[in-house]
């Protein structure tokens, strides 16, 4: 299979990781250009790729066949539309767009143009997440009853020197917990209703520093999610899974999934079930098995999937439309908190 001729828009925190991933997988993708009006090209191993300050000029001059959009959220829609207009396939970082209205516009443009699209919910490519999905689908836990998820860590104070991070949209719900909400949709099914509460009691910024959410899924499963960037704990997917080298490994699980026949901790992948087959009940012994799966860098697995999506028509793991549903469920946590009532989702799609 031919490598993708790929360009990256935005060479910030996550753009750098995409550039490194492309450079590490020459059989999968060739980096043909990077566009960023501010970053310093000398800081990157570009392997001969061109550097542009202007994204539009780069697209028209280099004509890449695929693009990774790793720019601030408010640029995702316009840059996605630029790709659609030019027939360029794209992977856009999460959240798919800054608003639901923009997500609708981009979904329509993708459908009209036929451009292949993917949203960077890279956590779905973690081997432990895939194994959890396989176990759930095969019924290893019985019927899924409930899930409990924590994302709790303390961001350093200078993280908030960048002013957008103190404003609505820059908080742990849309930056971090959106990955957990996407993972809950992956493991538990589509969200039927959402309740939420947000607090800014610790940092006093306009944006939340802590949020609590309650999810109801189509299959009747219920889940709770707590996220905070103001509390110090070992319980984030990043610390438990090795997925991000910047997070020291805690080896702790952030997810507990509970089914009628057993339970699962993630990302440690510890499976709890009856010590004696079919001896299930609160007066019966329960035992844990640590399951092992080989670690794969999720950004590398995502890039390989992007190549197959473009070359072989593999269905997208998270399309723009699917990313919009994750955004809907995430924003509903904040809306529910503001309105003081639970919100039903996707009613039109169900009727
Ligand atoms: N998948 C993940 O785990 C993950 C992690 C972090 C960020 N993200 C997402 O990635 C995106 C970028 O986040 P970040 O933390 O890397 O931000 P960042 O601020 O570190 O980087 C953004 C870069 O985009 C550049 N830029 C601004 N305008 C541009 C334009 N018109 N054309 C090209 N480049 C432009 C900026 O100069 C900057 O270098 C956001 O959508 C964010 O939510 C995803």
Structural description of this entry:
The protein is α/β, with parallel strands linked by helices and 351 residues long. Helix content is 33%, strand content 23%. The chain contains ten helices and 15 strands. The chain has helices at 13-24, 55-62, 76-86, 100-113, 127-137, 172-188, 237-241, 298-312, 320-339, 347-350, and strands at residues 4-9, 29-35, 50-52, 66-69, 89-92, 117-119, 144-152, 191-199, 210-217, 222-228, 255-259, 262-266, 270-274, 286-290, 343-344. The protein has a nine-stranded mixed beta sheet with strand order 14-13-12-11-7-10-9-8-15. The protein has a six-stranded parallel beta sheet with strand order 3-2-1-4-5-6, sandwiched between helices. β11 (255-259) and β12 form a beta hairpin. α2 packs parallel to α3 (76-86). The longest helix has 20 residues, at 320-339. It is globular, with a radius of gyration of 21 Å.
Helical segment count: 10
Strand adjacency order, main sheet:
14-13-12-11-7-10-9-8-15
* Strand percentage: 15-25%
Succession of helices and strands: EHEEHEHEHEHEHEEEHEEEEHHEH
Which molecules are bound in this entry? nicotinamide-adenine-dinucleotide
Overall pLDDT metric: 96
**Total number of strands:** 15
Shape: globular
Give a short account of the largest sheet. 9 strands, mixed
Topology:
Blueprint lengths: L3 E6 L3 H12 L4 E7 L14 E3 L2 H8 L3 E4 L6 H11 L2 E4 L7 H14 L3 E3 L7 H11 L6 E9 L19 H17 L2 E9 L10 E8 L4 E7 L8 H5 L13 E5 L2 E5 L3 E5 L11 E5 L7 H15 L7 H20 L3 E2 L2 H4 L1
Parallel strand pairs: 1-2, 1-4, 2-3, 4-5, 5-6, 7-10
Antiparallel strand pairs: 7-11, 8-9, 8-15, 9-10, 11-12, 12-13, 13-14
This protein binds nicotinamide-adenine-dinucleotide.
């Amino acid at each position: 299979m031919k490598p993708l001729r790929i360009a990256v828009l935005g060479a910030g925190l996550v753009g750098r990781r995409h550039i490194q991933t492309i450079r590490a997988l020459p059989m999968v993708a060739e980096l043909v250009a990077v566009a960023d009006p501010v970053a310093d090209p000398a800081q990157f191993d570009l392997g001969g790729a061109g550097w542009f300050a202007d994204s539009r000029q780069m697209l028209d001059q280099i004509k890449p066949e695929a693009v990774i959009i790793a720019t601030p959220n408010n640029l995702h829609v316009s840059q996605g539309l630029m790709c659609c207009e030019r027939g360029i396939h794209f992977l856009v970082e999460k959240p798919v767009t800054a608003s639901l209205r923009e997500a609708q516009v981009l979904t329509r443009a993708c459908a009209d143009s036929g451009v292949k699209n993917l949203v960077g919910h890279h956590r779905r490519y973690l081997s432990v997440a895939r194994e959890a999905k396989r176990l759930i689908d095969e019924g290893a836990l019985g019927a899924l009853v409930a899930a409990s998820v924590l994302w709790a860590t303390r961001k350093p104070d200078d993280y908030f020197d960048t002013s957008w991070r103190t404003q609505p949209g820059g908080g742990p719900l849309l930056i971090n917990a959106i990955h957990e909400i996407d993972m809950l949709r992956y493991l538990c099914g589509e969200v039927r209703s959402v309740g939420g509460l947000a607090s800014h009691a610790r940092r006093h910024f306009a944006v939340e520093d802590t949020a609590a959410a309650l999810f109801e899924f189509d299959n009747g499963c219920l889940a709770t999610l707590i996220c905070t960037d103001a509390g110090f704990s070992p319980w984030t997917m990043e610390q438990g899974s090795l997925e991000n080298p910047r997070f020291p490994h805690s080896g702790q699980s952030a997810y507990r999934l509970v089914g009628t026949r057993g339970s699962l901790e993630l990302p440690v992948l510890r499976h709890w079930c009856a010590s004696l087959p079919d001896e299930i009940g609160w007066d019966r012994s329960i035992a844990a098995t640590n399951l092992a799966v080989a670690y794969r860098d999720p950004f590398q697995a995502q890039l390989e999937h992007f190549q197959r999506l473009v070359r072989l028509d593999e269905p997208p793991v998270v399309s723009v439309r699917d990313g919009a549903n994750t955004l809907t469920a995430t924003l509903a946590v904040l809306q529910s908190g503001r309105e003081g009532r639970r919100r039903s989702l996707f009613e039109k799609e169900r009727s």
